[in-house]
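Cont'd.
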Amino acid sequence: MTRNSPDPQPLLEMENVSVDFPVKGPYPFSKKCWIQAVTDVSLEVSEGETFGIVGESGCGKTTLANAMIGMVRPTAGTVRFQGVDLYALNPKAFKEARREMQMIFQDPFSSLNPRFSVYEIIREPLYIRGQASETVMKGKVLELLKLVGLDEEDMYRYPSDFSGGQRQRIGIARSIILNPRFLVCDEPVSALDVSVHAQILNLLMDIQKSRHLTYVFVSHNLAVVKNICQNMVVMYLGMIMESGSSDAIFANPLHPYTKALLSAVLDIDVTKPRDRILLKGDTPSPIDPPAGCRFWQRCPSAMKGCRTVPAKLVEVEPDHQVACHLISGFSAQQVADSLHEPVSPKSGG
Amino acid sequence: MADTVLEVRNLKVAFPCPGGVIRAVEGIDLDIHRGECAALVGESGCGKSVSALAIMKLLNTPPAVCRVDKLWLDDLDLTHLPDRQMERIRGKHMAMIFQDAMTALNPVMTVGKQIDEIYLRHSRLSRREARQRTIEALELVEVPEARSRANSYPHQLSGGMRQRVLIALAFACVPKLIIADEPTTALDVTIQAQVLDVLKNMQRVHRVSALLITHDLSVVANMADTVYVMYAGKIVERAAMQEIFLEPLHPYTHGLLASVPRISDERQPFVQIPDAVPHPMRKPTGCYFHPRCPRSNDPCRQRMPRLEGPDDGRAVRCWHPLRQPHEVRS
Amino acid sequence: MSRPNVLLQVAQRGGSLVTFVRKLWQHPQGRLGLILAGCLVLVAILAPILAPYDPYDVTQRAAKGLRPSWQHPLGTTTTTGQDIFSMLIYGSRVSLMIGIGTGVALAFLGALMGVMAGYLGGFVDNLIVRVVDIMLVIPTLPLIIVLTSLLGRSYFVIVLVFVIFGWTGLARVIRSLVLVLKNSNYVKAAELAGASRWYIMTKHILPGTSHLIIMNTALTSAGIMVAEAGLSFLGLGDPTAISWGKMLAEAQGGGALLFGAWWWIIAPGIGIFLSVFSFMRIGIVMEEVFNPRMKASSSIYKLFKHLNNTYLDEVFRSMEEEESVVREPPDRSDAPTPEGCHG
Amino acid sequence: MKRSYVIQRILYAVFIFFVVLTLNFFIPRIGVHDPAERYYPPQGGMSTIEYEIIKQFTREQYGFDVSAFQQYVRYLQGLLRLDLGTSLRSGSPKVTALIAQRLPWTLVLSVSTLVISLFAGLLFGTVAAWKRGRWQDTLLLNASTVSVALPSFFIALMLSFYLGFRLELFPAYTNPNMVAQFDWSWDAIRMVFTNAALPIMSMSLGGIIGYSQITRNSVIAVTNEDYVVTARAKGLPQATVLYKHVLRNALLPLATSIGMNIGGLIGGAIIIEQVFNWQGMGTLFLEANSTKDYPLMMGIMLFLSAFAILANLVTELLYVILDPRVTVGDKR
């Protein structure tokens, strides 16, 4: 671990970020609906750390990651990178700021243009910036190829000649050629063969060490996150359920969702039996998320008030916040309000 | 053996294509006992799904060419069974659960009708009786409001529900053998846990033998009794589930287990297997694993080892296993 | 892989017209199409040299309705005694000119509209999609007839009308492909690196659609040739030129059917057939070459027809455990009796 | 959900119709500002005043005596009464009356063509897909490249020449008395169909091969789907799998192409009707064209467009029944 105390100024800071997507029908007369992909998320990523975002599909983790690097404009809230509000910048400054941030994609098959040679793919960011001569670019690409464990000859091959793991290496080389400080890894191994996972993860960590990078690591695999991340958030339906240092969260998971997620990860330790928490039902649609706590319909210990009162993140110990009424309880006002409000007859599941 | 439900000897599948022949499955042997769940584990392209389809005799020829020396389901000899008779066995005596329920269910037919079909085909039931059985089957796999869900189309159900429908479909006639091809890979972890639970219950309750095909070792740990590890079209190790996790013999199995990050694990770096799975058309000579193997030497490069071990116990295909199979036999 | 092999692969990529032609040439059917189209172009260019008679000469009263002979390889017309072979050669000019000219213009407009709709999205996309929807329901041939009668019957007008009303098909196809390309991760990566819209359009999106554009140019050219023949047949083409459609109309009007002058009908028919066929071939082969899934599956079926069993036996034998005889007790050595198993 | 989709579709169709009819109104005005000038050049022995009176009369008759916008409003009002205007022919017949008179004869051709090509196409396409890679499939493939390269009017001419003039199996030209003598008697109906045989044949040939090709490709695509494997894994016999799972899904893309083609079918009959001198809408249109009878031409155009819009709408609504997934697109 690189550091324990939080930086005075975090590298990336998100404040009450929400992202809604309009969904439009195919005809001009159809209604518009909104997907609430990310709702009211605040977090800080400090320099040099690996920050994990964990959640199941459709929880908004990829959207959140995209909002961090300026690929998706948030509907509300601010994103500050090195203290500068990213979305308040003029286009030129915005482009310059983004030089520091890059992304590694989930699917190594669609993230490389099949018509480009490996050389063209890796040098592309430099080429776009237009500041380097051909020889400089060539030297740089060669250096990176070596760094990610590919041969010089591979430079003139095409993506179709490579296996998934090798393609991901090419993607990594491309993402670090501009010497970024901040790298978002969006499920970098989930599309790869099991036996290749470790290679790519180790490579990522080596690069982090040698180039002092800050990672945001998006994953659905808790075991991976536990092993490489210092801080993390657990997301459900666009909201943060639990956040803090991964040590604290894994040592003492507090949110029922985190607990369920942890127990559902089938560890391959076959010797000791574990009791697993089975959640009922399915994840609701982000188009029409439940009122109150977003998790109440599936929560094994949901209370009446959870249906109407949204849960807020509260700090339970240093470096550990949870958004759950079980922990924070209800205020007197909330209790009074919930008494007046009719509880919907529909039960969860 | 009387207790053997599925006996496969020397199953081979090849795909001739313009550039040469893809040797997908290179002679695998399987024995699955009554009520047992055997897992066929391997990475993508190792031939595990092809083997499953070949056992069901569902491979399309062309493009596949398939040979087998012996294929017995309980007391039925399927080795040379013609297509027509095979149709009576599929669905009734052996059934299959597919990976992606969204594509494995007909999108323009209600799920109820799709389950009805199997009763109408394999038993003399009226439409109404069949629907009754369908609803019961859906209730068994814990589909809530089964009666109304039976009238919905696949796209109206969630991923977990669709997978349950597939499970209901497979268990409809209580077959002798269920082949589950990556039954939970497409699902989220929390849903995965629900579905695996249902699958496990169904298998145990009906005492149905199962062949579980997966790349996910944690699914194996949760479900299987016996494990076959496949690599590049060959079985490289066979063991009871506990044994393989406690003491893998093949360097590949060992590397695979070590490279999977665990919750209860020490920190980085992860143990890694170098390189990648060979292309099925360009497999190396000798042992297919030797280019990635830390223990490989000359004989490994020249000759393919045999799967060695006691007939019904542990076996390993390696010149230099971590330990000899007979040494570890308990 | 060795160095020369790598270089070869480099040469095979890229999206230039030369590579397309090379790929076509490698495919037997594509080669047929290319050769045919090439010959037709040559014939059209060299028409005054190749044609034995003046096709416009309507004064040969003595040579009316002659059957095919050495003197008149395809006979003469029954009404005015024009040499049909010469007419056929001159007719290729109109057909090819309109076909290729319109095809290229259409490809340009269609690609432009498709890329704009797909890449810019929003209002532009909406507008283009609506226009396409409207064009789809307006009956094309009647509209063309109305417009030629309004604007005059020159080939310029015909080409113009074809272009204005023919781009929708290509635009739809290109638009949906652009939508896919636009959302691909490699475009995202380029955006992240700070690429401009122009860069992404020219480096990633247009090259990605080039095969579709070229393929469609060939196919629409073929379609336009048929349509032009139809227009001329209805007497709506340029009245001054000789075209195959007009020859057919004259044949019908001149009583070729009645007098049994089959050569007068067959000749322009063959002309139309050959020109359309060659362009169709090029288009279809293009699709096969660039749609790998289609190519692979069709070639596998062909391959299967020629598979012989001894070869397969050899393959399966090679999978056997080579040590089986030496090291293993006999219970496994009775294995190799391969039998077919059809699933 | 479903209902809102249907309403959306209908609204959209109405919108498209409105745009099309507006285009239809303004397109002929590109060239013609005053029918009087164009159609009545001064004739010998006519005084200027006489000529002006005639011109004024013509303008009033064809509604050109007011501004273009007012004409447009009148046009819309007329449409509400299903009045497509007045033809420039002598006797000033209503356009709708002319269309109504010719429409049935065109329908005889196009409906039979559609039915024949659909059924034969489905059959041949399925066979070709089933016998993939064998001679049936190769034959279809070759037939399709040949047939696309042969214009339908050339086929019509050849049929007319061989089956009509040489073999005398069917009338090579339509009997001119067919329409006038038609009286619903058995003989009259038979006469219609012997006369229609060659036009229908030449029109269906392309259709059969086209639909076969679509059917073949979509059957093959569906055969590779996972749910077909599921159906086979259930132990269903091959025929059931083909009928219940493959064909049902393979029909979906076919339905779309039928919807698109129906509109074009009547328009496409123009050339064939001309070859056989069949007294349908196509020949009516060509007659209108040769006399520059724009009200009639645009009336026919509008009718054909409306027909195409309706056909598209019907297939899309049919789709709602055929494919339960269609409404998914709205909420993705």
